[in-house]
Amino acid sequence: MSPPVVVTVAGTDSGGAAGVAADLTTFAALGVHGACVVTAVTAQDTTGVRAVHPVPLDVVAAQLDAVLEDLDPVAVKTGMLGTPETVRLVADRCADRILVVDPVIVATSGAVLADDAVVRAYRDHLLPVATVATPNAEEDDRLGRDHGATVIRTGTGGADLLCVPGQPPVRLAHPRVDTDNDHGTGCTYAAALAAELAHGLALPDAARSAASYVVGQLRLSQRWTLGRGRGPVAHLHQPKPHHEGDSA
Ligand SMILES: Nc1ncnc2c1ncn2[C@@H]1O[C@H](COP(=O)(O)OP(=O)(O)OP(=O)(O)O)[C@@H](O)[C@H]1O
Ligand SMILES: Cc1ncc(CO)c(N)n1
């Protein structure tokens, strides 16, 4: 049987921690076929973002149309979209699919990846058609809740908060990993959530499974010493016999 198809609409991270790299490896790990629509190229490493190059809107639209028309993805996951026009494009094209919106506004390093116009476009166009959004606390506060979407407010203290409009919030607790290697956790979490929803899990179960996946990956990379800043969360890392001599 063929795997479900999930497409990520996101930016690249040259350091290989966040964005498209995190999404595609997470999709592969969780048994869905991953397609990718690149919205921006970032010059980025573990210490920060040096430059952002948005992909022209018509090129983003051409990638998205190709994937939607040929592969018919059951779910769409958005990461860094970069411009208000790209936010609107995704809202217009993807409203009828499972739509996981990770509103990327600030990177783990503190770099600003979306301006006020992008934030407004999220509020006015994309969040109202999202299945679920996964802002961190800062992004959630920036976006407010007038958009009406179901939100999982992610936290780094070992719990996330599932907020369905009109219902009391549900605390989703999970173990906390003490680590500096957390670059890419937000992308990995939202990609895992999209994969689990694509497999047919209901939202709270998909959210628990996604958090448990991230915790497992954070444990794998807990003692890595890659880069000089906040190192990458592990993607698909399984020690192979011929790599046993690698430093831990
Ligand atoms: N140290 C940690 N231990 C356990 N879980 C963590 C830790 N840090 C983050 N998480 C979990 O990872 C998921 C993503 O949350 P996080 O707050 O890192 O997203 P984010 O701020 O959007 O990340 P990014 O800016 O890297 O995209 C959540 O489920 C959160 O609880
Ligand atoms: C490309 C990209 N997407 C998302 C994030 C969020 O951490 C990042 N740092 N870079």
UniProtKB/TrEMBL annotation:
Involved pathway(s): Cofactor biosynthesis; thiamine diphosphate biosynthesis; 4-amino-2-methyl-5-diphosphomethylpyrimidine from 5-amino-1-(5-phospho-D-ribosyl)imidazole: step 3/3
First-level EC class: transferase
Molecular function in Gene Ontology: hydroxymethylpyrimidine kinase activity; phosphomethylpyrimidine kinase activity
Region feature (Disordered): 229-248
EC number: 2.7.1.49, 2.7.4.7
Signal peptide: none
Domain Pyridoxamine kinase/Phosphomethylpyrimidine kinase: 13-143, 159-233
Catalysed reaction, written as an equation: 4-amino-5-hydroxymethyl-2-methylpyrimidine + ATP = 4-amino-2-methyl-5-(phosphooxymethyl)pyrimidine + ADP + H(+); 4-amino-2-methyl-5-(phosphooxymethyl)pyrimidine + ATP = 4-amino-2-methyl-5-(diphosphooxymethyl)pyrimidine + ADP
Keyword terms of this UniProt record: Kinase, Thiamine biosynthesis, Transferase
Task of the protein: Catalyzes the phosphorylation of hydroxymethylpyrimidine phosphate (HMP-P) to HMP-PP, and of HMP to HMP-P.
Name this protein carries in UniProt: Bifunctional hydroxymethylpyrimidine kinase/phosphomethylpyrimidine kinase
Organism (species): Nocardioides vastitatis
